[in-house]
Write a structure and sequence with these properties.
Length: 306
């Protein structure tokens, strides 16, 4: 019998005997003008929806403040990151110069020309400066907007007096918070108006008022965290006893609770930082923690703005 050619020997694997061609991926296709035209109404509709939603968010003072808070702290964070990147480039350039100098023969005269020294991109430094200026402007605007905060505190105090919380401990916490916020707002307003030469407090008094105002805010934040813990513990007991509560209501309550907890935990280190004359954290952490607090509040308001 004649041998049939083309059949691989028994010890040869099919994969090696019959190699399959590997298909090459085809390049992505460019959308046709007809496809782009069909997508245009969808994009316009989404853009209109976002702008309408943003307009509703900015129609309330709280929405405006939360958005400005997020933009302000994220701008500060961006400025710090760009400055760090520029500093890294400077260090890299200095390291290269030192390495080249070490590699030269002894007794070699080194002449450095400014044109030969690598410098970081001026665009990064310019962007860092502009982002920091934007952050400072937003901070000043938000402080100005809080000049009327005493009215909101009065309304809060009146509501607490007329309809105090049923729980004794929470009622005491809220009363202390009202007093702490009152002191905070008076001190901040005095320091801010004096910095604009409207009141006559000197620089030393302004600095002390600013520090003590933040300490009052720190009391509010700390008590808020304690209150959230108490409410969570008692909420679990109520949920175990009352089974008729709708799941949707509990989910909404938990969403508000998580938002408040994250915001307060982010602000807590900042209140300690600003209440100390020497500070506690770097500008990077101020921007990062502030962005977390503002972004969390913004996300919650965005999802719950009709």
């Amino acid at each position: 019998m004649s041998e049939i050619s083309g059949i691989p020997p028994a010890e040869t694997s099919p994969a090696s005997a019959l190699p399959l061609p590997i298909p090459t991926p085809s390049p992505p296709q460019i959308p046709t003008p007809q496809a782009l035209q069909s997508w245009l109404p969808l994009y316009l509709s989404k853009t209109d929806s976002v702008l309408t939603h943003l307009s509703k968010l900015l129609s309330t003072p709280s929405g405006t403040d939360v958005l400005l808070c997020t933009i302000g702290y994220s701008s500060l964070l961006t400025s710090n990151l760009l400055s760090r990147l520029s500093l890294h480039q400077i260090r890299q350039a200095a390291r290269l110069l030192i390495e080249k100098a070490i590699a030269l023969p002894p007794n070699t005269t080194i002449v450095l020309s400014p044109s030969n020294i690598p410098v970081p991109s001026s665009r990064l430094l310019l962007l860092a400066t502009r982002f920091k200026a934007l952050s400072a402007l937003i901070s000043d605007f938000r402080t100005f907007g809080r000049l009327w905060g005493l009215l909101a505190i009065y309304k809060w105090a009146k509501a607490t007096w007329n309809s105090p919380p049923e729980d004794t401990l929470i009622r005491k916490i809220v009363q202390i918070q009202v007093l702490a916020n009152l002191c905070y707002q008076v001190l901040e307003n005095g320091a801010y108006l004096s910095s604009k030469n409207i009141l006559s407090w000197d620089k030393t008094k302004q600095a002390k008022a600013g520090i003590w105002s933040v300490r009052c805010w720190m009391v509010h934040v700390g008590l808020d965290i304690v209150k959230l813990g108490i409410e969570y513990g008692r909420r679990d007991k109520e949920m175990a006893e009352v089974k008729g509560e709708k799941e949707k209501e509990h989910r909404e309550w938990m969403e508000r609770w998580r938002k408040s907890l994250i915001v307060n935990l982010a602000y807590a280190p900042l209140t300690v930082h600003w209440s100390l004359e020497g500070g506690l954290v770097t500008e990077f952490w101020v921007g990062l923690l502030g962005t977390v607090a503002g972004g969390t509040s913004l996300r919650y308001l965005w999802r719950n703005t009709a």
